[in-house]
Amino acid sequence: MKENKFNLPSINEARRRTKCAAKIEHLEFKIPEDIKDLGVGRSYFIRTYGCQANERDSEILAGILETMGYQKSEEFDKADLILLNTCAIRQNAEEKVFGEIGNLKRLKRTNPELIIGVCGCMAQEEATIKRLLSKYPWVDLVFGTHNLYNLPQLLKNVLFSKEKTIEVFSKEGEVIEDLPSSRLQKHKAWVNIMYGCDKFCAYCIVPYTRGKERSRLMEDILKEIDELIAEGYKEVCLLGQNVNAYGRDLDIKGGFGALLEAVAKTGIPRIRFMTSHPWNFDDQTIAICAKYPNIMPYIHLPLQSGNDEILRKMNRRYSAKEYKELYDKLKKAIPGCSFTTDIIVGFPNESDEAFKDTLDMVDYCQYDNAFTFIFSRRKGTPAYDMEDAIDMKTKEERLAILNKKVAHYANLANQRFLNTVVEVLVDGPSKKNPDIYAGYSKENKLVNFKANNVKIGDLVKVKITAVKSFSLDGEMIEDK
Ligand code: 5AD
Ligand code: SF4
């Protein structure tokens, strides 16, 4: 690793991959004596952008801060420390963060003691750090995705030396166990099973910001899940950029399928996982999904494009035909399974015909939902330099056409639940109406329902009385 005054990140270094397995460290997480009470009397606020990996990292950051005595602040502008845990996946996600950092200047003026930190994926980008340094001098602290565990030392540096502190490593990364964490929910938990990504899809910044694919040991994952069960958790979501690659770096026999089976056998009522890459979704994993009733019949299977030429340029490693075959296999093996996907429109030089292939695939798979995006150029990725003759207006029109189709099939897919009874894990009162509860069915459908005397974390039966495109309405029925 090249070190300079500020440990600036380097995309070129982040691109490198070695063959050796990542180091797994079981830390006895101790905060040095001189700073162990640094947070006493101080409060923190973490704002999280982007994916579940960031949500989970924020829980770990919160855990570290609370170990130092910091208290969570419910209000952004009352906190003594504000951390923005950022996402770099698309330019508009980044602009949102820069907008927020811009707003923080005002807070810093009224409270000069306020510490402002930026972490997460944007912190791993060279260009972002340069922009932060030159245009946003009120940011005190920047640290990368590989530097979470060092937060106490970094805060010490900011507070005692009053220096701007930047620590970002561009490296493949290790696996660090036993960090403290303060989970946001008490009934559903994110559980990392692996970190990083080695797929290098041509458009994607993640392999550079999160390092190489590296798995946690199965015993560490199962220990975490056993503890969650003991605390009363009802659902775990196994997290990785690409869960089907689980265990390959450690030669774990049976890979993701074996892990999934072991998690199913713990007896926790609900298990889901994301994200699956269609390329290494093997038959054993499909059989295990079909076999265990506590594995939720819900699969997020990113398509990205339905056109072979675009898929090849994206470096996705599957053809449209292979994707369809996998989809058919899953649908047949897991009755009632719901499917969601991610789709990018306007990849460089995507022709009308290529876009039509994507629409045809949506017609074929009739997804329960799809997350759709216009291609965004990310500096350092292969697609950044690709020629593109397609204008933004065409891309926006395609997105609108696609979204209309997605909404149509989402509604159609929900019709199958009308007048049926589904099992719902209760999240709490609905955001819009406190007399109505909200939760998710096993198929990961949002259900708003009338009920009496239910608590967060209850598993209840709900009769579906009305169907919308992106949610279901119903009434709880008492179990006789
Ligand atoms: N532009 C647009 N969408 C992207 N995604 C990842 N990188 C980009 C990009 N550069 C989308 C993919 C991925 C999801 C998490 O974000 O569809 O599956
Ligand atoms: Fe990005 Fe592709 Fe890795 Fe997903 S599999 S994180 S889209 S590089």
Could you please describe the fold and organization of this structure?
By secondary structure, the chain is of the alpha/beta class. The chain has 4 domains: 155 residues, Rossmann fold; 112 residues, Transcription Regulator spoIIAA (2-Layer Sandwich); 119 residues, Transcription Regulator spoIIAA; 56 residues, Nucleic acid-binding proteins (OB fold (Dihydrolipoamide Acetyltransferase, E2P)), CATH 2.40.50.140. It contains 13 helices and 21 strands. The strands form 6 sheets. The chain has a 6-stranded parallel sheet with strand order 3-2-4-5-6-7, sandwiched between helices. Strands 17-18-19-21-20 form a 5-stranded mixed β-barrel. A 3-stranded parallel sheet has the order 9-12-13, with helices on both faces. Helix 8 packs parallel to helix 9 and helix 12 runs parallel beside helix 13. The chain is globular and about 60 Å long. 5'-deoxyadenosine binds next to strand 15.
Runs in which pLDDT lies below 50 for 5 or more consecutive residues are: none
Rg measurement, Å: 23 Å
In CATH, what is the homologous superfamily of the largest domain?
Methylthiotransferase, N-terminal domain
Q: Total number of helical segments?
A: 13
Strand content: 15-25%
CATH names the topology of the largest domain as: Rossmann fold
Shape: globular
**Distance between the amino and carboxyl termini:** 64 Å
- Write out the strand line-up for the largest beta sheet, numbering strands in chain order: 3-2-4-5-6-7
